[in-house]
Design a protein that fits this description.
Pathway: Amino-acid biosynthesis; L-proline biosynthesis; L-proline from L-glutamate 5-semialdehyde: step 1/1
Pfam family, one: F420_oxidored
Strand content: 5-15%
Number of helices: 11
Largest sheet: 8 strands, mixed
Number of strands: 8
Structural class: alpha/beta
CATH topology of the largest domain: Rossmann fold
Shape: elongated
Radius of gyration: 22 Å
Order of helices and strands: EHEHEEHEHEEHEHHHHHH
Family: Belongs to the pyrroline-5-carboxylate reductase family.
CATH superfamily of the largest domain: NAD(P)-binding Rossmann-like Domain
CATH architecture of the largest domain: 3-Layer(aba) Sandwich
GO molecular function, one term: pyrroline-5-carboxylate reductase activity
Main location: cytoplasm
Length: 271
């Protein structure tokens, strides 16, 4: 992998991506990272890449194929215009900053900028993420492939052809890990209410969700089929699912409301 990469910010997710790229053969000499001084030094020492504190320290003859924004969304407006001199046809700007729209980038970098907006989620930190991407019309197929290859190192990748769908993506897969974590909390609380000690209830809830996830991942069956496989008519699982699957106040209705609330908030935050 000989992609020339400029990575802006290298926190937990950025580091996970970087480790994945290097493990798959990305040439460390082709990577520049813009970070604070201490972090830049540590990254240079640890990975053998070039760490700088300002984009102006990047050599003029280094033309990145991908400029990847991995900084926090609230920081991006303060630094983005520093990268305007890098806008050219051979460079695609890939952003994993939540809530930052194509309009945000074109307003700061210009209409000619080739941009891919991406929404990963936190399991990307352990290479089990789900990333959805949306490109501007001027992004070439080769640039799409390059972005997909980079983000496929930390999980699965999907594309949408309508940017407004990124709000739904944010609400489902972007925020989704938090829903699963809360499910573990709720299951543990229910276990306590049923008489289990708190630590044991949490152990059972946590491992049940982790194990079910692995089973789903390893199986060719749908989630519905796997559910049906462990549900005996008139049994304990069926009794619980009668409550959870109630169409009026069960999990489907609750989850629909939760995802819609997140989608609306995503729209609001995007301005």
């Amino acid at each position: 992998m000989n992609t020339r990469l400029l990575l802006i910010g290298c926190g937990k997710m950025g580091s996970a991506m970087l480790e994945g790229w290097l493990a798959k053969g990305l040439n460390a000499d082709n990577v520049y990272i813009v970070e604070q001084a201490e972090a830049a030094d540590k990254l240079s020492t640890r990975y053998g890449i070039h760490g700088v504190t300002d984009v102006r320290e990047v050599p003029q003859d280094f033309i990145p194929q991908v400029v990847l924004f991995a900084v926090k969304p609230q920081i991006l407006p303060e630094v983005i215009e520093n990268y305007k001199p890098l806008v050219r046809a051979e460079t695609v700007f890939l952003s994993v900053a939540a809530g930052k729209t194509i309009t945000f980038f074109t307003s700061h970098l210009g209409e000619a900028t080739r941009i891919v907006r991406a929404m990963p989620n936190t399991p990307a930190a352990v290479s089990r993420g789900m990333t959805v991407m949306y490109p501007t019309d001027n992004v070439s197929q080769a640039q799409r492939d390059m972005c997909e290859t980079l983000l496929a190192t930390v999980g699965l990748v999907s594309w949408v052809d309508d940017e407004t769908l990124m709000d739904a993506v944010t609400a489902l897969s972007g925020s989704g890990p938090a829903y699963i974590f809360h499910l573990v909390e709720a299951m543990a609380q229910a276990g306590e209410a049923a008489g289990l000690p708190s630590e044991q209830a949490m152990l059972l809830a946590r491992q049940t969700v982790v194990g079910a996830g692995f089973l789903l991942d390893a199986s060719d069956e749908t989630a519905a089929t796997l559910r049906e496989n462990v549900t005996s008519p008139g049994g304990t699982t069926a009794a619980a699912l009668n409550v959870l699957m109630d169409q009026t106040n069960g999990l489907p209705e609750l989850m629909t409301r939760a995802v819609e609330a997140a989608r609306k908030r995503s729209v609001e935050l995007a301005g």
